[in-house]
Amino acid sequence: MKRIGIIGATGYSGIELIRILLQHPEINIHSLYSSSAEGKSLTDYFPHLQGADLPALKGIQPEEIAQENDLVFLATPAGVSAEITPALIKEGVKVIDLSGDLRLHSPQAYKEWYKKSPAAESVLQQAVYGLPEWNKSKLREASVVANPGCYPTATLLALLPILQTEWIKPDSIIVDAKSGVSGAGRGASLGVHFSELNDSFHAYKVGQHQHTPEIEQEILHMTKKEITIQFTPHLVPMTRGILATSYVSLDKSKDVAHIVESLQELYENAYQHAPFVRVRPFGSYPRTKEVLGTNYCDVALHLDERTGRIVILSVIDNMVKGAAGQAVQNMNLLFGFEETLGLPVHALYP
Q1: Transmembrane region positions (predicted)?
Q2: For a FRET experiment, which of 7, 30, 211, 259 has its CA 20 to 30 Å from that of 16?
Q3: What pLDDT is recorded for position 204?
């Protein structure tokens, strides 16, 4: 049994990690850490965990944490992992960071988009981007994993197959994404107050969202193409789920009829060995409800003949494939377990 520690256990990503790991046959949740709840029981915050065999919450002492665990998840706000991770990896413990601190290769880009001090460059160089469908071989050898953001997960899985081709106009990509409010975390603020959010729907951080450089960076890394996307996130009055709608213009100098015929096959081949990506029939409409509580990303392709655009729909549960589930998928690869081990595959429906 591998000993697992979770830093930030009282947040939404932390509690989702616990839900999943309690069902994992090869894992012992050995230690839980919180900067604000040291010495307390997790059931004081989450009574639904009554009866689960969980340790009391501890304070955050990196050297002690490293000695107690084989792997540590950091389910912390931005800025925390940058400070803690160096001490953890110095002691030889594996780290999976669910915050954005280790995702951007450029310290300057992190400063610009996150408005915080970046992690040490030596740590950033060690961190492997944890999108298993496109980075599996590196993840098997990793000791530090930067777990992808929720929006980038849905967006990259939708776009990367077609971006491997020369079929499109690379400057045409627009991503319109909607997320449930759990993506904002458990902290209270006016923006997620019930009476402000209920019966409403709005865009936010237009042209400024910190996941934009992450998406562009990984497109460059995976395809060798430097592409600028237009990314606009929206907040939907529901708890979980992301729907990303990506618009890509076809290069009309190419054989469009051939492209359309080959498109579905392109995606099915790209994900034939990806257990958590389901390529839906051409022209279908995946819904967030159909992946709720699971580690799946469902992708569907459409052609708008009038505009000459491919429209790609992708849905995930932002707390599972967009956070804790993908982190456990990465953990499985790090430890050499079956990639799907312990992960939920049946949606909560209705």
Answers
A1: none
A2: 211
A3: 96
Report the C-alpha gap between 292 and 345 in whole angstroms.
Answer: 10
Rounded Cα gap, residues 98 and 322, in angstroms: 10
In the beta sheet, which residues pair with residue 236? 180
Q: Length of the chain in residues, anyone?
A: 350
Report the CATH fold assignment for 151-316: Dihydrodipicolinate Reductase; domain 2 (3.30.360)
The residues, ordered by sequence, that sit 6+ positions from 107 with a Cβ below 8 Å of its Cβ are 118, 119, 121, 124
For the chain, the structural domain boundaries read 2-148+322-335, 151-316
Phi-psi region of 30 (alpha: psi -120 to 50; beta: other; left: phi over 0): alpha
Burial class (CB in 10 A: 0-12, 13-18, 19+), 74: buried
Give the closest residue to 86 by CA, choosing from 143, 44, 23, 141: 143
How does pLDDT run across 67-95, given as a tens digit for each residue? 999 999 999 999 999 999 999 999 999 99
pLDDT at 37 over 90: no
Enzyme catalytic residues:
150
Omega cis (within 30) before 350: yes
Query: Residue type at 168?
Result: I
Q: Are strands 144-146 and 94-97 parallel, antiparallel or unpaired?
A: parallel
2-148+322-335 and 151-316 have identical folds: no
Please answer whether residues 8 and 34 qualify as being in contact, where contact means their C-beta atoms are separated by less than 8 angstroms. yes
Give the global pTM: 0.97
The domain covering 2-148+322-335 belongs, at the CATH homologous superfamily level, to NAD(P)-binding Rossmann-like Domain (3.40.50.720)
CA end-to-end distance (rounded Å), the chain: 35
Q: Can you tell me the mean pLDDT for 242-265?
A: 94
| CA 140 to mean position of chain CA atoms | 18
The closest alpha carbon to 160, from 258, 274, 261, belongs to 274
